[in-house]
Amino acid sequence: MARPVRVFQHPNSLLVGHVRNLLEGAGVMCELRNWTLAGGMGDLAPIDCEPELWVAFDDAPRAEALIDQWRQSVEVSSSPGARLSRGWRCQRCGEWHEANFDTCWQCGLERPDP
Ligand SMILES: [Zn+2]
């Protein structure tokens, strides 16, 4: 691979593997560095040996665009704001409700103010 460029790094090797699948699925060949199977979910590697994803120089702009896109979709689906707008939790019984319910179907308590 001529003049590889690092496009992604993360302490979670599962995430790095996910991004590699994403890129290779789009036809961008990747090289993994500092990859270890030990760094799974919640088991973070030290910062100086984080798994890294490298691509050929010519593929870097495309890889970065794909990663940006993926990152935005992850942030939208996991941000607290997105979660709040989708539903609410009853303060009395803890039941989870979709946003279109105004009262708890379980105990009748009204939806708390945001
Ligand atoms: Zn309730």
From TrEMBL:
Residues of the DUF2007 domain: 6-70
Q: Which Pfam families match?
A: DUF2007
Q: What is this protein called?
A: DUF2007 domain-containing protein
